Automatic annotation (TrEMBL):
The lineage of its organism: Eukaryota, Metazoa, Chordata, Craniata, Vertebrata. The keyword Repeat applies. PANTHER family: DOUBLECORTIN DOMAIN CONTAINING 2, DOUBLECORTIN DOMAIN-CONTAINING PROTEIN 2B. One of its GO terms (cellular component) is microtubule organizing center. It comes from Trogon melanurus. One of its GO terms (biological process) is intracellular signal transduction. This is DCD2B protein.
Length: 245
């Protein structure tokens, strides 16, 4: 009877899930089977954790037309879906990451683009090629992950001329940091004081990306920054090269 039951069980389905309204999300693969997920809610809970959604996932939509998926049986093998909380489906070109269908308005320099409620600022070719805080028209800082003494800091490169909304910067940090605790909710200096806006960021300085948890005071700089980088950092600090300066 058990072998007959296995034979009659629906085959597993492979699906990919994106975060609603997130143009940077690469998508997460899931294998959905009756044995692994007994209910649709159990699957949504797993999606919430796996894609590091800032809020609990309660709805799935088809990526092109935003049709709502009501139950596990509606999932199709090899298809893609968009995970959302209780907010409305946000239409983006989820299936072609890196070539999103951009909607909205741009400023006079064409740097600010709206993508269904998200904003991002394409870095100019000068910033990309230089890749340092001394790149023309750009500034950079380095960001540690809160409580993580195994991963080196990642660079955050931003244009000087265009102000970056704080919530958008936190969204960018969320994607780059990939904290175990989920979304980045605040950015702290190495002494634990909180940064409240982009205008407070200083070129060449180090910061810590923090989620819902408390800031963890650890020797990030001493353990994760090579000695030759220390000299460069001290040079930037002495020059006091601030954002926009």
């Amino acid at each position: 009877m058990s072998s007959l039951g296995l034979a009659l069980a629906p085959p597993a389905k492979n699906v990919v899930v994106y975060r609603n309204g997130d143009p940077f999300c690469p998508g997460r693969k899931f294998v959905v089977s009756q044995r692994r997920f007994l209910t649709f809610e159990a699957f949504l809970n797993e999606v919430t954790k796996s894609i590091q959604a800032p809020l609990a996932v309660r709805n799935l939509y088809t990526p092109r037309h935003g049709h709502r998926v009501a139950e596990l049986g509606d999932l199709q093998d090899g298809c893609q879906y968009v995970a959302a909380g209780f907010e409305k489906f946000k239409k983006l070109n989820y299936l072609n990451r890196g070539r999103k269908e951009l909607r909205g308005t741009g400023n006079s320099k064409g740097l600010q683009v709206s993508t269904g409620g998200w904003l991002f600022f394409p870095t100019s070719h000068r910033c990309r090629s230089a890749g340092s805080s001394r790149a023309p028209g750009c500034f950079s800082c380095s960001v540690f992950r809160n409580g993580d003494l195994l991963s080196p800091p990642f660079p955050l490169l931003l244009p000087k001329s265009t102000p970056l909304p704080w919530d958008v910067l936190l969204a960018t940090l969320t994607e780059k940091a990939a904290l175990r605790s989920g979304a980045v909710n605040k950015l702290c200096r190495l002494d634990g004081t909180r940064v409240s806006g982009g205008e407070e960021l200083v070129n060449g300085h180090y910061y810590v990306a923090v989620g819902n948890e408390e800031y963890k005071e650890l020797p990030y700089f001493e353990l994760l920054v090579p000695q030759d980088s220390v000299c460069r950092t001290l040079w930037y600090v002495n020059c006091g090269s601030a954002v926009g300066g």
